[in-house]
Amino acid sequence: MRNTRTARRAGAAALGLGLIAGASLLIAPNASGHGYTDSPISRQKLCANKTVPDCGAIQWEPQSVEGLKGFPAAGPADGRICSAGLTQFAELDNPRGGAWPTTRLTSGQNHTFRWQFTANHSTTDFKYYVTKNGWDPTKPLTRASLESQPFLTVAYNGARPPMTFTHQGQLPSGKSGRHLILAVWTINDTANAFYACSDVQF
């Protein structure tokens, strides 16, 4: 009888600890952040909108293009930048003969950049790179294709952005024709960043 009572008490204690642990997990902040740009519209969002067909898995999770941070010194390999190096999203690296739909922009003018988040995250900054003049849009994106410095950096100092986040920034000057803008959202408290490629026409 005594052993039975002891077992019941032990079982109740274990159940209580389990409930406490479960509650802790429920109230813990979300440790994963996800997002994409839709102004200028990114390749992943074009796939999610079904504007571009044959996109594979990215059409169901445009927010998940996540790779190592530290670009351009680190991060995804050349030719795999738009997919953040994720093989399941390789369609984003396919230049499609230079035929991705473009957003029309005016070189040197201000633009409202917009991110949509499905899970926001403590953020270091947002950086925007553009391709060099003479870039070949029929080839996958490489570091050598991009200007060496971002044309816009928005520091966020570890804060969490709202679920829809916009900011104004000046577009690069001296650009005309088809180009690609690479947006990099650097996470503050993980080793990762999120990448988004937007095809534009200046």
Based on the model shown, name its key terms.
alpha+beta, Coagulation Factor XIII, Chain A, domain 1, 3-stranded antiparallel β-sheet, 202 residues
Secondary structure layout plus pairing:
Blueprint: H1 2-27, E1 34-39, H2 43-48, E2 66-68, E3 103-104, E4 110-119, E5 123-130, E6 152-155, E7 164-170, E8 178-187, E9 192-201
Secondary-structure element series: HEHEEEEEEEE
Report the uncertain regions.
Answer: 2-32
Strand count, sense and barrel status of the largest sheet are: 6 strands, mixed
CA radius of gyration is 22 Å
Helical residue percent band? 10-25%
Would you tell me the overall average pLDDT? 88
Strand content: 25-35%
* Main CATH class of the largest domain: Mainly Beta
Total domain modules: 2
Signal peptide: 1-33
Subcellular location: Secreted
Protein name: Chitin-binding protein
Main location: secreted
Describe the protein's architecture and organization.
The protein is of the alpha+beta class. 16% of the residues lie in helices and 30% in strands. It is built from two helices and nine strands. The strands form two sheets. Strands 2, 3, 5, 6, 8 and 9 form a six-stranded mixed sheet that branches. A three-stranded antiparallel sheet has the order 1-4-7, with no helix packed on it. It is globular, with a radius of gyration of 22 Å. The chain starts with a helix and ends with a strand. Residues 1-33 form the signal peptide. Residues 34-200 form the Chitin-binding type-4 domain. InterPro entries: Cellulose/chitin-bd_N, GlcNAc_Chitin_IntDeg, Ig_E-set.
